Amino acid sequence: MLTIVVLGASAGGLHPLREFVRASSPEPGVAVVVITHLPLHHDSHLVSLLGNVGTLPVRAAVHGERIEGGTAYVLPPGTLMGIREGRFEINERPTNRHPVRPIDTFMMALAEDAAERCVGVVLSGTDHDGTAGLKAIKAGGGMTLAQDPETAEFPGMPRSAIEARVTDRVLPPHAMPAAIREYLGHEPVDLTSFP
Length: 195
What we know:
7-stranded parallel beta sheet, 6 helices, alpha/beta, 9 strands
């Protein structure tokens, strides 16, 4: 059974995303989805920036594609993404809707589609995108994590999630893959050894 881990990041998010991917390894039963805030017509190099830091294959998500384990998928620029029956639903981002919350949008769709088979992670960023999404994932029985604000360049998003009491754990990004493996029962990890 596939577990989907969604990473939400905004300002200052590249470094923690790279830390998370560097500490991850391809696992057949786990897929990673990366959702970031990008300007509408921004040319993103996130696939290559994340793909060269570890062993986890990284590629752009494609509309209608079935999500497979052992892979990380990146939200294409200028889009909002959902999921239905394990397949990506990607639409152009509306220009007349403010604020746009791509992290909440995907996390809430994921919570509805995968219930307890999902993990939500909020990393560095401003504002509070991701808080409502983590709430939906937690309500569905999934796991929720936030980056330790002390390690975030922009702590607004993780702090919002922590203050809303929707996080199971607060960790530095490099410690998150081990915590997720422990949650999934793959290996016991003593998290007290992490700073």
